[in-house]
Design brief:
About 55% of the residues lie in helices and about 15% in strands. Helix 2 crosses helix 4, helix 3 crosses helix 4 and helix 4 runs parallel beside helix 5. The chain has one domain: Rossmann fold. Bound molecules: shikimate-3-phosphate. The site of shikimate-3-phosphate (S3P) has 10 residues, from loops.
Length: about 170
């Protein structure tokens, strides 16, 4: 069985866009965790947060990783908080490799500023708000990953090629 490629990283680091490029390069299946969760709950990510709260969303995230980890190789575009639970990281490590995408706070801000689909950025939509949350999470991201790729100033194709070379 080939292993999964889990793309992790802060919101706006390009996980979804890059995973589509990687899919073209490698010809593997691609799974978008947030899309899977929204489909299985029958509502959007902001609606899940609003209706059931973040803890419920994290449960759905773990359930999604459990089921992905049992399937054959795929490129998995993870939600930005997927590695916040150790049990998730353990499952991911057992079933694949974890690639961290990074970006500077100002890069993230410019990528996400017009989006309305990220509940955790609703009250943090500024470079300093993003920087603060990124700072809180950077240790977990770095500890969880096998390899790291910076995305600042690069095209999705360039990032995907860099990842493919590191596999
Ligand atoms: C989250 C990131 C989002 C989504 C949810 C929570 C996070 O995914 O899963 O809003 O905790 O960082 P993206 O990283 O794809 O935006």
């Amino acid at each position: 069985m080939k292993k999964h490629i889990y793309l992790i990283g802060f919101m706006g680091t390009g996980k979804s866009t890059v995973s589509k490029e990687l899919k073209k390069l490698l010809g593997w299946e691609e799974v978008e965790m947030d899309e899977e969760i929204a489909r299985s709950c029958g509502m959007s990510i902001p609606e899940i947060f609003e209706t059931y709260g973040e803890a419920y969303f994290r449960e759905q995230e773990t359930a999604c990783i459990v089921s992905i980890s049992k399937t054959d190789s795929s490129i998995v575009s993870c939600g930005g908080g997927a590695v916040l639970r150790e049990e998730n990281v353990k499952l991911m490590k057992e079933s694949g490799q974890i690639i961290l995408l990074t970006a500077r706070p100002d890069t993230v801000y410019h990528r996400v500023k017009h989006g309305k689909d990220r509940p955790l950025l609703k009250d943090r939509m500024s470079i300093s708000g993003i920087s603060q949350l990124m700072e809180q999470r950077s240790g977990v991201y770095e500890k969880s990953c096998d390899k790291m790729v910076s995305t600042d100033g690069k095209t999705p194709l360039e990032i995907a090629q860099e990842i493919a070379e590191k596999l």
